Amino acid sequence: MTLHRTILTIIVFLCILTAPYVYAADILNQIHPYISVSGEYDDNINLTSNNKINDFTTTIMPGIKFSNMDAKSGIDLDVSAGYVFYDKNPNLNYICGNGSLNAKYMTSEHVNFYLQESYSRSDNPREQEYLTPVADNKYVLSTSTQRSVYSRNVFAPTVEYQFGQESSIGVNYRNNIYHTDASISENSIENYISPFITYWFDKRNGVHLDYAYTNGDFEASPDLNGQKVTARYMNRLNPKATAFVEGAYTNQSFALSSMDYNIYEPSVGLTYILTSTLTASAQIGYYWMEYLNQDPKYNGLTFKVDLANTDVQTTYVLSIQGGYTEDYFTSQNLGFEKYYRATGSIKHNLEKRFSIGFSGSIERVEYIGQERIDTIWSVGPSASYQLMKWLSLSLEISHNADESNSSYGYIDNKGILRLTASY
């Protein structure tokens, strides 16, 4: 348990002890303990192209959920910890854990506080992007080729002053700590701060400005000092549609100066509310990337499309992006790469107690300075059934592959059966 999480737990219990009996009882009713037992078969646990190792793991994970969120304040908390048992490779057994926190407090003086916290401890070679929902089906580009335990803790508060219905000024901060036991990876710490202002001149015209500074401390690689400036002009075409023009400049400066580079990226976009549950956004632009002390320069089209539906019966998300990515504070720290990705998932409730789903993704990576191109893709169905009010059963199956022109390619199939009891 991290220091932040320990403090949060103490605060919650102090609130319970000092609150009036009725209020304390209401808080206790919002605390829901649970325990899950899952079995997973994986036919390629190290994601290798040859000498594949298969294994069956059993995970026992108790946890607790708490939620009292309303329009003005509250927290959503989900914390769990457990143990993973390997059948054929007991030397890989380890303690696992997950935690997420979303909190907000909006004052009558229009000073608002927000907090996101995320913690994970795993040995999964592919790590999910932090602070993104599982349904988004997004993973960091780096993939570990050694089955080792790693942990990540992200602490991200925001403070803002709202001086208009849609206008605000504030600052975002993020502390991102990555620790790994893998001998081929390295620990890292990110400290990120970003002051911002959003100002609407009238109901149709507005601007958003932000500056971001990143300090990266790496165990072995050169440390990073990064800066990014973004300016956006927004025009509300109608109550449902908003068009925008954006310009961004990024400078990444390393302790080893030969790695320094700049990125220039103008773009235009549109956000649209299709229905009360369906929203869409699209953005297209162009980028120029240049190393400051080297000849190679790269440029190309950038694009991003997002579609999200939150209907009670059917929920789905679709995301498409292209151009480039920057991979830092991960197991490999791959840096700047040409990158294209499409991800999506859908969940449909067939009836009150039974739901089915499907997820898929495809990524293409062109590695800078290498003659290596990877096409990474994954597909898989899922299903969940509420056996009783307090007991649920779920099944996930996935096929994952990396079609690479190098030795890093792999094919992996796995299935997870999970039983969860909650109170």
Q: Number of helical segments?
A: 2
Separation, N- and C-terminal Cα atoms: 23 Å
What radius of gyration results from the CA coordinates? 23 Å
CATH architecture: Beta Barrel
Structural class: mainly beta
Helix content: under 10%
State the major sheet: 20 strands, antiparallel, barrel
Order of helices and strands: HHEEEEEEEEEEEEEEEEEEEEEE
What's the shape? globular
Stated plainly, the CATH topology is called Maltoporin, Chain A
Task: Give the uncertain stretches in residue-range form.
Answer: none
The overall pLDDT average reads: 92
Produce a short descriptive summary.
The chain is 6% helix and 66% strand. The chain has 423 residues and is mainly beta. The protein has a single domain, classed as Maltoporin, Chain A (Beta Barrel).
Give short descriptive properties of this protein.
single chain; 423 residues; mainly beta; Maltoporin, Chain A; 20-stranded antiparallel β-barrel; 2 helices; 22 strands
